[in-house]
């Protein structure tokens, strides 16, 4: 008799570590600008507003290509498409290390968004093709552990690379960081090409009885969704429910990338606020603390979501916690006290993400799911453009980070409110009765 847990565990060990490694490098490559902010701003003469624009323009290219990229993954298969994405983004990151001026940096950051588009929603769609619904949130959480781990480990390592790479081979520290973080993506692209399998039916590494069990379970789930929601791609892309999820994810991404790009700066600001002088390595280590807590919270919270099935509530609660916590940090009078609400905010935003991505597959399948997941991620990730740009602009305008952090809190609370409203609203994409 086939053990469902045993089969899922085999699939998990076969697929998730590769995808985690891919997302680990991906997270570093899109946020390493935050680690190198002081170095690159001085080298290329960037104001806070221009730095925010360089950080956020990535998401413009990302949004433009996201949906077609995910549809291409559905058509050509995850193995080929994820490999293409990884190799192309790695090449662009290495090129950023040789950017001679701000204009070139902006162009390359835009191209990086184009190159990376489709990775995250492609992986989410890929996991939905391999894991039954009862395991989905925790599997997404395991994959996404790469993100807080990358922030926790990558920030101090990135700071160290900037330090040791300054002057090496005639490069500035930030240039050495970019080159060192871009090359692993190219290697992982090759690994994906030879290691991933597109669907369970093609898994020669699974015994026949386990392959049949997994294929049958996933097919039964897809039929159940199809019986309730017979949604063509065009209808999915215009569904109010899909667009509401995109609004929710806008708030999630706003909080996520505001922390990613500006948390190192906030900690470096402890010198001015509290007279605490920190080296770049110490800033990196302190920055890692919230993400270490976030990794543990995300994994445990996702397991609880799968056990209870209340994924919408498991999105709203941590987003509300994080949104209320982040502005509090601006009014506390010691570095230790400041780090407590910052850590709660990081735990909140990361804990919400796995449960969020369990929601679309509840009413979408096939190409409709691929396109809608791409749309949700692309529109939602406009928050990744808005967060660093508006935070930097408000800092320049008012000479203080307080307004920017208040904006982060408001966006996260609004995101929690929308997902609760969405849970209470009737389905708008279900096929008509008798249809």
TrEMBL record:
Q: Any transmembrane segments, and where?
A: 12-28, 48-69, 81-100, 106-127, 139-162, 174-196, 242-263, 283-301, 313-332, 338-359, 366-391, 403-422
In terms of Gene3D superfamilies, this protein maps to: MFS general substrate transporter like domains
**Keywords assigned by UniProt?**
Membrane, Transmembrane, Transmembrane helix, Transport
Q: Which CDD domains match?
A: MFS_ExuT_GudP_like
Record-annotated Major facilitator superfamily (MFS) profile domain positions: 15-427
Please give, as recorded in its UniProt entry, the membrane topology of this protein.
Multi-pass membrane protein
Q: What does this protein do?
A: Component of the tartrate utilization system and may allow entry of tartrate and tartrate dehydrogenase.
Record's protein name: Putative tartrate transporter
Q: Which organism is it from?
A: Mycolicibacterium litorale
């Amino acid at each position: 008799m086939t053990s469902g847990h045993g089969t899922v565990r085999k699939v998990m060990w076969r697929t998730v570590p590769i995808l985690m490694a891919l997302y680990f490098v991906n997270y570093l490559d899109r946020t390493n600008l935050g680690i190198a902010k002081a170095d690159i701003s001085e080298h290329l003469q960037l104001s806070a507003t221009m730095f925010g624009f360089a950080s956020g323009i990535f998401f413009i290219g990302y949004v433009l290509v996201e949906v077609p990229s995910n549809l291409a993954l559905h058509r050509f298969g995850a193995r080929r498409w994820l490999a293409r994405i990884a190799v192309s983004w790695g090449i662009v990151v290495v090129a950023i290390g040789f950017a001679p001026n701000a204009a070139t940096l902006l162009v390359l950051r835009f191209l990086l968004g184009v190159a990376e588009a489709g990775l995250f929603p492609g992986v989410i769609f890929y996991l939905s093709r391999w894991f039954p619904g009862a395991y989905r949130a925790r599997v997404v959480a395991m994959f996404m552990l790469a993100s807080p781990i990358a922030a926790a480990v990558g920030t101090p390592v990135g700071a160290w690379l900037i330090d040791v790479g300054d002057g090496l081979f005639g490069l500035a520290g930030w240039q050495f960081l970019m080159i060192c973080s871009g090359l692993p993506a190219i290697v992982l692209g090759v690994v994906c090409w030879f290691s991933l399998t597109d669907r369970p039916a093609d898994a020669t590494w699974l015994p026949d009885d386990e392959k049949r069990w997994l294929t049958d379970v996933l097919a039964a789930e897809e039929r159940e969704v199809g019986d309730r929601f017979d949604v063509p791609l065009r209808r999915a892309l215009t569904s109010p429910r899909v667009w509401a999820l995109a609004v929710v994810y806008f708030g999630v991404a706003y909080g996520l990338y505001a922390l990613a790009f500006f948390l190192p700066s906030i900690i470096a600001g402890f010198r001015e606020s509290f007279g605490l002088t920190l080296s770049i390595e110490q800033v990196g280590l302190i920055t890692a603390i919230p993400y270490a807590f976030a990794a543990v919270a995300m994994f445990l919270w996702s397991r609880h979501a799968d056990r209870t099935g209340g994924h919408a509530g498991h999105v709203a609660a941590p987003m509300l916690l994080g949104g209320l916590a982040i502005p509090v940090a601006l009014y506390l009078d010691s570095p230790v006290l400041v780090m407590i609400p910052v850590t709660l905010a990081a735990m909140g935003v990361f804990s919400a993400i796995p449960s969020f991505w369990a929601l679309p597959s509840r009413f979408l399948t096939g190409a409709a799911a691929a396109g809608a997941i791409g749309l949700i991620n692309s529109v939602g990730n406009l928050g990744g453009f808005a967060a660093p740009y508006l935070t930097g602009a408000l800092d320049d305008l008012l000479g203080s980070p307080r307004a920017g952090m208040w904006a982060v809190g408001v966006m996260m609370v609004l995101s929690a409110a929308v997902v609760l409203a969405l849970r209470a609203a009737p389905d708008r994409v279900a096929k008509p009765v008798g249809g």
